[in-house]
Amino acid sequence: MRDTWIRTLVMGLVLFFGLILNGSSEEPRASFQIGDLKVLPGETGAVQLDVTVEEDTDCFIPVTVIHGSRPGKVLALVAGVHGYEYPPILALYRLKSMIDPESLSGTLILVHIAHVPAFQKRMIYFNPYDWKNLNRVFPGDPEGTQAERIAYVLVEEVVKKCDFLIDLHCGDGNEALIPYCYWMVSGDERLDGLSREMVLAFGIKHIIIDDTRSRDLTSSKYLGNTALLLGKPAITTESGFLGRSDEEDIQRNIFGSLSVMRHFRMIEGEALPVKEPIWIDKYEVVYSDCSGLFHPLTEMGYYVKEGEKVGYVTDYLGNRIREFRAPFSGMILYILGTPPANDGEPLFEVGRVQK
Predict the structure, then answer these.
(1) Within 13 Å and on the Cβ side, how many CA atoms surround 222?
(2) Which CATH number fits domain 32-263: 1.10.132.30, 3.40.630.10, 3.60.20.10, 3.40.50.920?
(3) Using CA atoms, how far apart are residues 83 and 127, in angstroms rounded to an integer?
């Protein structure tokens, strides 16, 4: 009995001093890889993910990986799916210099500009080579058009390698838009609960409850919806308007991203979730069925009644050809803030506040 006790004591002392000498009994934290980039724990790395396209263009996606020294969540922040939406893009470049990998738990993937061709050409909505909206062609196609190939690379290299995803948007160069978020409801209780935590932690008070997205991965269309269908909690945020680079909206994107990171215990500090969210349980985008000049009769954030005239379109000679009215009573989430109106493109969006 005495010999057994002595052996146990000796083994305990050996283990104790071994932990002191080696620091930990856990296996070393592995590197994190995206494309050809491998980032060691406690380091930051950057890469341009190549997108092979048929056009004679240099197509790539600039990505930063901050790989924390300690284990934790893998959070992907994606900006620039629409290339004219600047505040989220600028926010992620600032965020890169704010996060210390030595004190980070987990891994942060920063997709600085998801849609470089549109950014370079200052294009709203569309890819300049195939005229497709990147946020309507997910999950993409490696043999498809340029936008479809960009979407495919984003899914393979970012969505499939993260645990959580935030798709950061704002009002495009033509959209006057109030800050709001989409909480996409998938029907999966676990996913919906986690994404609800994320959207509250981001801190923007107007939140759309969106149950309209496709449940078919092959036609998921949107980046955030694609992530959800692949089992990754995701939200879509909107902060910024009319293609501006205003400081308030840049800071709102930074604040929201940091708050979600704190919620997941990736960095120190307490998350600051929105205290009194305004839930929007129904929304509708009104599209133009003609081309000409749009004349808004209200502004973003204003309330309208069902049937109220929101704006009208004149032809290129100045003749009024079409009036557009609110489909139901609610708030104007965004409205065109520039004159061009094109057949098949959005004019405004109305959201109904949940009672």
Answers:
(1) 19
(2) 3.40.630.10
(3) 9
CATH class of 281-353: mainly beta
Partner residues linked to 279 by β-bridges: 207
Tell me if the pTM is above 0.85: yes
Q: How far apart are CA 157 and CA 162, in angstroms?
A: 9
Per-residue pLDDT 10s for the chain (355 aa) are 445 444 444 444 434 444 444 444 456 889 999 999 999 999 999 999 999 998 778 899 999 999 999 999 999 999 999 999 999 999 999 999 999 999 999 999 999 999 999 999 999 999 999 999 999 999 999 999 999 999 999 999 999 999 999 999 999 999 999 999 999 999 999 999 999 999 999 999 999 999 999 999 999 999 999 999 999 999 999 999 999 999 999 999 999 999 999 999 999 999 999 999 999 999 999 999 999 999 999 999 999 999 999 999 999 999 999 999 999 999 999 999 999 999 999 999 999 999 8
Give SS3 for 296: strand
Q: Where are the domains of the chain?
A: 32-263, 281-353
